[in-house]
Amino acid sequence: MPEPDSISPMPDVTSSQVNTDVSPEEIKDASSWVSELQASLGEVLVGQEALGRDLTIALLTGGHVLLEGVPGLAKSLAVSCLADAVQATFSRLQFTPDLLPSDLVGTEVYDAREHTFSVRKGPIFANFVLADEINRAPAKVQSALLEAMQERHVSIGGDTMKLPHPFLVLATQNPIEQDGTYPLPEAQLDRFALKTVVGYPSAAEELEIMDRMSRTAPKTHVRQVVSLDVIEKSRSIVDRIHLDDRLGRYIVDLVQATRDPASVGLGELAPYLQYGASPRASIWLALTSRANAFMEHRGYVTPADVKAIAPAVLRHRLLTTYEAEAEGVTSDDLVARFLETVPVP
Hints:
By secondary structure, the protein is of the alpha/beta class.
């Protein structure tokens, strides 16, 4: 794969150059809980700034998140801490090859005395659902989860039942173990707004992790800092954050380039790409860029917001070829080249 060019500097953008529907005071007041949430998560988690950012963006946008990393990197712990910090219901389901759809969504139970059926709801009926090792679930379970993720409702015994609001699926998967796993279909991967790759900590971070957790009763819970009502209000403000038409076009150009690399002078990447990103990528890139601006206490989106969140939005939506795998070219490598090459407005 050719060496990437140097990253071109992005233009400065100030509040005086954009029209925004949200005043600086309103943004500052509405987003004050973000720093409190990060501090609360930091009481247990060490490092993992990208993970904390992506989980917060999921709260602000209602998007599902796929967390990928080797065992022992606190993926499940991060999700449970998020549930502690937010006043919401939480359920965890360990996915296994023998799991049934009814184990996820629930089932009808027959009452012999009353001669009637009643619905026993499954763990999917929660605000936050941790799907641990999601790629161990068989196709039928993944199909049931897909309906819940996309439609926000499930079907039990012919009846359609709405899921709680908000509803987030936070799934984990282990990239190094293949025995007994079922790769997620592309249609389901596309339903995840973000895919966060959780990496190893630095030596200093691991020393702090060891100091905190090498106890018979380590701290694994955090204080509650925000309610669902506050998050709902924050979402309404995220929708009002200004996205300039030029930045909207930049987002579309970026996604379009993943389908036709030659259109931006990256024809050499075509052999590595089987399929580019879907239109959902443009939708989520625009929405998550607004959320990133909200977290930065701004009422407008800058190119830096788009570039910061683009890898998490795009990496699981690019289907690479066998040639890319053989040469060790990852979807992250391709996303980096597109970000370096597509002109910034």
